[in-house]
Amino acid sequence: METVSKRELLSLELFELEEWLLSAGEAKYRAKQLFPQLHKGLSPDEMTNLGKRLQQKLRDAFVWHLPAVERKLVSKIDGTVKYLFSLADGNCVESVVMRYEHGNTICISSQVGCRMGCKFCASTIGGRVRDLSSGELLGQVIAAQKDLGERISNIVMMGIGEPLDNYDNVLKFLRLVNCEDGINIGYRHISLSTCGLVDKIERLMEENLPITLSISLHAPDDETRSAIMPINKKYGVDALLDACRAYFAKTGRRISFEYTLIAGKNDSAENALKLARVLNAKLRSRTETMPIHVNLIPVNEVSETEFKRSSKDAVLKFAKVLESKGIRATVRRKLGSDINASCGQLRREKILSEPSF
Ligand code: SAH
Asked: For the residues 173-190, what does the mean pLDDT come to?
């Protein structure tokens, strides 16, 4: 018997739902009943206002699965919530909700694992298992909102995975989460972080979405960067900063730079000076002044790697050098330090605790 794989209900945009309803002999307006309820986390079986016949058609045509809370850790210090979500096939990803005065921000994962190979990162250790679908990307936001009983108003794509390595699903997710009939989070409230896939950054700028782009730079020159981030061998610092400049010129959206400080690798005053020089040279000229902001993040020590955090002194000195060259730098406040809130580590713990066959 031939089995046709069913489509995933949560991955459907409103217009796709409308098209399906029409093809299934149902009224188009039903989409506007279905879509908001789906995005609140209800399964079609729970939507009694649809009627039994439509519920059955939905069951026949689609799979519906919301990421399930496998583990949940709540920080006693600042209320940060970390979820380990399990997906329909048993794979797990992590999401973190951070509580700020201006609202809740969720950090979501974009892939199961990652193939970018950054040396300091826990998410990449087992490689990439698979991409997340747009419904699974969205599902993390829905499931967290449902569990918390609170609105999430901001999204950062800084969890497990490289979002631009899962380009089409991520773009569809952005449209889904932005849709006013669903969760309705504005593009300006969404940040996407990348290790620097230049070809995809160039593609993204053509979409002209007012999201915030965040670049994981972590080093000021090719030698230092290639030693910790293999992607740099394909797209070097110059090419990456050229893409950033073009992105800003096209979209007018500021770009923020992430810089993880690792003791003895990239945290010297000389590294800071080089960073300031290269950012100023590549992104600022007489005619254009791109606002530059660098987030300094003392590396989270991962048990499988030998990298150590920079000392407080080294971090402050690094920030001072940048500021002295006109570059705004902030040291990232560490949220959820009691629950190991940085991504990748909870999933690793789970994998390591399971018997391997
Ligand atoms: N792949 C994307 C997004 C995921 S990682 C990217 O590279 O941007 C989110 C951020 O956490 C990145 O800036 C990444 O470099 C950083 N990061 C990864 N492991 C870390 C660690 N052990 N300590 C501090 N930051 C880390």
From this structure: 97
Task: Give, in order, the Cα–Cα distances in Å from 265 to each of 53, 120, 223, 328.
Answer: 63, 11, 11, 22
Whole-prediction pTM? 0.94
Catalytic positions: 94, 343
Instruction: Tell me the pLDDT tens digit for each residue of 58-103.
Output: 999 999 999 999 999 999 998 999 999 999 999 999 999 999 988 9
Q: What is the CATH number of domain 7-63?
A: 1.10.150.530
Residue with CA nearest ligand 1 atom 15: 216
Q: Which CATH number fits domain 68-353: 3.30.1460.10, 3.40.50.620, 3.20.20.70, 3.50.50.60?
A: 3.20.20.70
> For residue 267, what are the β-bridge partners?
none
Give per-residue pLDDT as tens, 123-166: 998 899 999 999 999 999 999 999 999 999 999 999 999 999 99
Q: Which residues have any ligand 1 atom within 6 Å of their CB?
A: 116, 118, 120-121, 158, 162, 193-195, 216, 258, 260, 297, 299-300, 302, 342
